[in-house]
Structures are given as structure tokens and as C-alpha cells.
Amino acid sequence: MTKSVSIIQINDTHANLFEHxxxxxxxxxxxxxxxxGYARIMTKINEYKARYTxxxxxxxxxxxxxxxxxxIETKGEVMVPYLKMLGVDAMxxxxxxxxxxxxxxxxxQKLGYPILAANVYDEDTNDLIFPATAIFExxxxxxxxxxxASNIIRSNMPEPFWRGAIxxxxxxxxxxxxxxxxxxxxDVVLLLSHLGYPQDIELLKQxxxxxxxxxGHTHNRIRTPQKINDALIIQSGALASSIGFIRLTLDKxxxxxxxxxxxxxxxxxxxxxKMKEALxxxxxxxxxxxxxxxxxxxxxxxxxxxxxxxxxxxxxxLDAMRDVTGAAIAxxxxxxxxxxxxxxxxxxxxxxxxxxxxxxxxxxxxxGNQIWKLLEDNLESTFxxxxxxxxxxxxxxxxxxxxYFKLENPYGQRIQQIFVxxxxxxPDEIYDVVFVTEQAVPKDVGSNRRELSIRAIEAxxxxxxxxxxxxxxxxxxxxx
Length: 480
Description:
By secondary structure, the protein is an alpha/beta fold. The chain is built from 14 helices and 28 strands.
């Protein structure tokens, strides 16, 4: 007798409740299309539930409670009613810890479903902070779920994200819990992970007993499930622009049939009326609507973060930072969220889409040697051939530098030459650098570090008061 379970994956939505711009890939390069939003996710969930009555489970890989102005203003609270409407069964996390681990822990009761993290421990007691696993019944079939939160939170994120907690790569925990769940008699062992696609593949090579991995964090658009040993793995894009659906049919305890859909939430997917009405009536969203809708300028370019090597969205931020400070060099982190903004009129919401935390601008003095090492370290943490040495995000964004590098070289030997403007970087020269967040320039790097009295949004608004944004040089990093 065969048994089936249908699973919907939502990952890395970054609190994008509404339709928004996102990058699509085309024969002519990056294009921007209006897609996504929770009302479209709701429509697809309803469709699958109608088609596969009582056998649908919904899992969220995290990066859910952070990424928009309203989410940050409410410390994620604005998301609660809409996640409950979707009917999520469990989640794990990454940026969701931005408001502190205890705050995130409090969300379990508000959401009504578990936040799973088998690899996150109390620093003092070594006890698990979140449940490691959960078991779900679908007809006479049982699904055991292991949750793994992002393992880089303590090593790569600001202290509020991780204070009081320690994180592991989850490999040993996954081994233990997969074996335990199998011994318990579950039919399907599912890994709900925010480690990242390369990391999850490496884990599946080492951990037996997992049937399906729902992977998050790295925003891969996987259109065909991949098989690693005996496990299937999918990842379903990001930014509430797409979701994944996978249906497993079991015969005599083994997966005998797999149906999969990567679902682009474009205009062909109607928005659910009930979700639209709830969003329109939300007092928190109403409170900030006029402020965010105000027109602040114009861009002559589509703004996006489509490439590991550059993002026009980041160039705009960095050029504004250089403009207000006079610094020759600017750095920001290689964030992957933000979607894309079509060229034309810019609203304040668009600016918060670029950098929703609105961090303060900082200055630091760096020697040429320090800049070189900072970039070598970042190339390794982005492109390391060892998955668990990758720290997430794209390459560090810069304006003012030309970095020629050989990606295939080993750590510490990739950069060939760096130019600052028209001049070659001088090892012992001191350079004034403007940056935002410790992810761009770690706090132990450089000297004369100081905060300015201006934040990122104000810098961009002041830039736009002078001129529309435009740029024709996108080669800060040049592979050779």
C-alpha cells in the first residue's frame, strides 16, 4: 500500500508581505519583474490543500521576521498574523534572531508552531534553547523533522543575534536525530535547514537516514530535486517570490515517486482575497504607509543584487556614502535580500528595501595591507571550496576599488592587483574608508574607528536631492 505526503517549502522571504521587484534571469541579462507577496503564497497553499486534502505540511526555513521596515520596527511582530494564516507547521532561523534569541524564543507561543534548532545551545547550561525535532502525522504516515538554524550567526552576525547562545554545524546532531527518528518508526525524515545549499549537500554526504532536505539561506532556485546519497534536496528561491512543492509517495517504506514544482509567484498567480484584505486593514502597515510611499528621487538604473560580484543596489548605497563623507573607498556587506527596484521614481520604501536596518555610517582608517587582507578573507568566506568555511552572503561590496583576482587560487593568493581610483593600492598607505555594519569591516580591523551622525537612508536621500542615480561602471571585482 502506498502512502503520500505533500510538503510546501517557504524560505528566506525576508518579510516581503507585498508584491515587489525581483531579479529574473534572461538571455539579455538581469531583468526586474514584479512578483511575490504573501497573498500569492496563500493562493498556492490553498490550491495544494484542495488538491491533496489533509496531506499537506508547510515548512519555513527562516529569514522570515526581518528584512522590511515594518518587520524591524515591530521586531518581527507584524509577521505573526500572516504566518498563522499560511498555516506553517514549523520553522528554523537566521536573521530572525536579530531581535535577540530570547525574543525569538517568545515567538513560538505567538506563532503556535515550533522553531526547530538542534544545533543551538545555551552558553551557560549547554541545554538546547529550541526543540531539535518535531513529528507530524499525515493520515497513517509520520514525518519526523530535524531543524538546523544558521551555523554562522555567532561568527558572522552582530552580538545581539547570538548573545547567550552557541551554534554548531549540526552534522553530529543530524546524525543523532535522524537515527533516533528512524528508530522511533517515522516514515519520512526531513531536514529543515538554514545552513545553505553547499553546506546541506556536504552534510547529506556525511549523515545517513535523511529522506528530504529543505535547504535555505543561499537563495538557490532549484527547479529539479537533487539526490545526495539517499536524500533529496531542494531550495526554492527567496523573498516570497517563489515557493517549492514536493510530494513524496512511499511504497513499502521507500520513496517510490517524487513530484516537484518550483513555483514562481508572478502575475499568473492571483492574490488571495482574504490575505489582501488582512494586509490592507493592518494598523501597523497603515501607520507607516504614507512615510514609506513618499517619493525621494529617481534612479536611471534598475537596482538589484543579482550577482555575487556586484549589485547596482549596493553601488547606489556606497556612492551615496562616499558622496556625503568625501571618502574614496566605501564598503558594505554582501547582503542577498532586498529584491530589485525598477528604474524610475524611488520612494522611501525602496531605500529601506536596500538597507532596512538603516545603520549609522562609520569611518575607519585602513592600511593598504589591511584592505588587501580584508578582501582576501572575504573571497575565502564567500567562495571557499570547503562549504562550512563559507560565511554566507555575496562578495563584500565596495566602491572606489578595482580588485583583480583569480577565483581558482587558494586562500590568501587570489588577489592579483588592487587600484584606488587611478592609483595602485600602496601597502603602507593609510586610507579613509566609510562603511556600514561590522559585517563590512570587523571591529578588530583598522584604527580611528568612529560613528558619524548620519545614517544610510539619510545619505541616500541627500544624494538624490542633488541628482538622479546613475552609474556605468560595474566592475569593482574583475576575475582574471
